[in-house]
């Protein structure tokens, strides 16, 4: 199903939609990375797009005429993950003692700092080429296989977007695998303990400092990988791709889908990439057909629907569309607590 | 030499001196109560000893200084804290809470110890797969105590175990504290409920405004006019 998807989409909806699928996969990777920080460790990060940016610029700088470097893809991707991870530690270290809204504000600032740096690192030495961004980035290639060129394999023509789809799919599956292994590992349980109660977690013998840093670093490196793929896929990066709005979107994928649940996060990523595009493409013609004219600009309609969807989900499915099993149990159990309180007093008496 | 020796312990929050140099000790197997009113510095004492607050002065545990031991290392040393307000992991089941208690352990007897906790608190056995956040206050206190015992501590520090519990539940909890003490675990018990604490303890300290003002056997403290007047309301 997943393997045939790009061709089905191509047939039914056109090639532009395969490209959207590719982006959906990138955003799933990002959302899964953020899920480690927000969903597992409970650290609200509003500047997550910074790590996406670091990964993208790492790739752009190491494989473009900008610095005259042309390292191969399979070397840059791990470097990008590593550097993004370092930036994760850079953000994590000074914020270890912050929680909740305070942490959110600092991370928000961090995201903006990175973007503004990228915007202004063109003088006195031109590193990032400022607001113009870096273009002519080397396409993703492994040995002599260029993902940007069409190939004919077994009589089927694979276009650039198809090939990227399979590459991104493979890496997304890897990220899912790592995420799920982490969730049930000793580290994953330590993250959840910190999320629930940090003092108690420390009292259990968890090295809360290192474990929290690790969440930042792991989450950031996932973002770095997605960033590298983004740069290679687009062939162009500029600071405007890494605005606060992107951080918010990624956070929405995690929250809407179901914080802490891998399936939910994947669902959130797919919906928040595909639905706005569907609206963008569908809203104009639909209005023409119904009203005979375009009354509302599809772009603003998109944001309107997005807002309505957010409110609706928070009202009716506060744990997300596909919540983790414990979150669901928790919400179901709330009604039962009062009864139990009485039971306990009863039991204590008898 | 006692298991825990504290000498001239001071803790300050910014400019406010919460502990102004207290000294206390807990011998191996002893149950010591630290009583005092709100804001006297009881919780601060336990947090400092657990490595959750910076302090000055001396705190020696098993004859080694705790000064440079981080909180997680102190758990390895055998000091367990049941924090104020219980601090159960609300979105984990009772069983998962108990397993978290064994976080520092890698041996094969964890499952066996969990059964032992269920023997101590049969209530938890019935509720093992329920989320801890949905339990009653008393049950949460049991989870917090059971979880702390899972690290196989030599010194168990309890912070206000009676807080917010129905009187009958308090009785149950204190029976269990006596029971744990009888099994040889040393206990430092912080309580506002002076009468209850002194009834189970062997020795006691009275903490007032960051200073220890009285120190005696629990029986003597219970009989002392000063304690009677200040904490027992008679």
Task: Explain this structure.
The complex is a heterodimer of chains A (350) and B (234). Chain A has 350 residues and is mainly alpha-helical. Helix content of chain A is 70%, strand content 4%. Chain A has a single domain, classed as ABC transporter involved in vitamin B12 uptake, BtuC. Chain A has 13 helices and six strands. In chain A, the strands form three sheets. Chain A has a two-stranded antiparallel sheet. Chain A has a two-stranded antiparallel ribbon with strand order 3-4. In chain A, strands 5-6 form a two-stranded antiparallel ribbon. The relative contact order of chain A is 0.16. Chain B has a single domain (4-232), classed as 3-Layer(aba) Sandwich (Rossmann fold). Chain B is 38% helix and 26% strand. Chain B is built from ten helices and ten strands. Chain B has helices at residues 42-49, 71-77, 94-101, 110-120, 122-126, 137-149, 167-182, 194-200, 218-223, 225-232; strands at 4-13, 16-26, 31-35, 56-61, 64-65, 79-82, 155-159, 186-191, 203-208, 211-217. In chain B, β7 (155-159), α7 and β8 form a beta-alpha-beta unit. Chain B is globular and about 45 Å long. Classes of the chains: A mainly alpha (350), B alpha/beta (234). Chains A and B meet through α7, α8 and α13 of A and α2, β6, α3, α6 and α7 of B.
């Amino acid at each position: 199903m997943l393997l045939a998807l790009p061709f089905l989409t191509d047939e039914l909806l056109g090639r532009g939609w395969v490209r959207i699928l590719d982006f959906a996969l990138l955003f799933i990777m990002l959302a899964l990375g953020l899920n480690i920080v927000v969903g597992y460790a409970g650290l609200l990060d509003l500047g997550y797009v910074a790590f996406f940016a670091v990964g993208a610029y790492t790739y752009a700088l190491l494989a473009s005429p900008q610095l005259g470097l042309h390292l191969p893809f399979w070397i840059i991707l791990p470097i990008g993950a590593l550097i993004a991870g370092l930036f994760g530690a850079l953000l994590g270290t000074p914020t270890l003692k912050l929680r909740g809204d305070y942490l959110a504000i600092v991370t928000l600032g961090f995201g903006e700092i990175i973007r503004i740096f990228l915007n202004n690192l063109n003088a006195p030495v031109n590193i990032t080429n400022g607001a113009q961004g870096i273009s002519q980035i080397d396409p993703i290639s492994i040995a002599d296989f260029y993902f940007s060129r069409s190939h004919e394999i077994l009589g089927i023509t694979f276009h650039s977007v198809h090939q990227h789809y399979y590459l991104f799919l493979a890496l997304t599956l890897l990220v899912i695998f790592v995420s799920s292994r982490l969730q049930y590992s000793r580290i994953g349980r330590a993250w959840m303990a910190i999320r629930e109660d940090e003092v108690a977690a420390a009292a259990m013998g968890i090295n809360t400092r290192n474990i929290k840093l690790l969440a930042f670093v792991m989450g950031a490196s996932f973002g770095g990988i997605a960033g590298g793929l983004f740069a290679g896929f687009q062939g162009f990066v500029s600071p405007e791709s890494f605005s606060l709005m992107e951080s918010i979107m990624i956070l929405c994928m995690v929250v809407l889908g179901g914080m802490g649940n891998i399936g939910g996060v994947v669902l959130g990523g797919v919906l928040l990439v595909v639905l706005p595009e569907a609206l963008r493409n569908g809203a104009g013609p639909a209005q023409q057909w119904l009203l005979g004219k375009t009354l509302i600009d599809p772009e603003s309609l998109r944001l309107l629907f997005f807002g309505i969807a957010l409110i609706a989900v928070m009202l009716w499915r506060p744990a997300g569309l596909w919540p983790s099993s414990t979150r669901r149990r928790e919400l179901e159990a709330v009604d039962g607590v009062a009864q139990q309180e009485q039971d306990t007093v009863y039991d204590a008496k008898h | 030499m006692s298991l825990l020796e504290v000498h001239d312990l001071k803790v300050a929050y910014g400019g406010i001196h919460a502990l102004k140099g207290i000294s206390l000790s807990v011998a191996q197997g002893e149950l010591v109560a630290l009583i005092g009113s709100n804001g006297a510095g009881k919780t601060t004492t336990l947090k400092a000893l657990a490595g959750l607050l910076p302090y000055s002065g001396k705190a020696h545990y098993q004859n080694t200084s705790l000064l440079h031991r981080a909180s997680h290392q102190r758990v390895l040393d055998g000091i367990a804290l049941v924090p104020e307000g219980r601090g159960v992991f609300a979105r984990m089941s009772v069983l998962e809470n108990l397993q978290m208690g064994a976080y520092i352990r890698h041996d094969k007897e964890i499952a066996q110890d969990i059964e032992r906790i269920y023997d101590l608190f049969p209530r938890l056995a019935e509720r093992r797969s329920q989320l801890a956040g949905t339990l009653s206050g008393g049950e949460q206190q049991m989870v917090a105590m059971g979880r702390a015992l899972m690290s196989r501590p030599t010194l168990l520090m309890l912070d206000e175990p009676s807080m917010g519990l129905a009187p009958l539940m308090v009785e149950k909890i204190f029976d269990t504290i006596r029971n744990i003490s009888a099994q040889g675990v040393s206990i430092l018990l912080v309580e506002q409920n002076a009468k209850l604490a002194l009834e189970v303890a062997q020795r006691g300290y009275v903490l007032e405004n960051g200073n220890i003002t009285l120190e005696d056997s629990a029986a003597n403290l219970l009989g002392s006019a000063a304690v009677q007047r200040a904490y027992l309301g008679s």
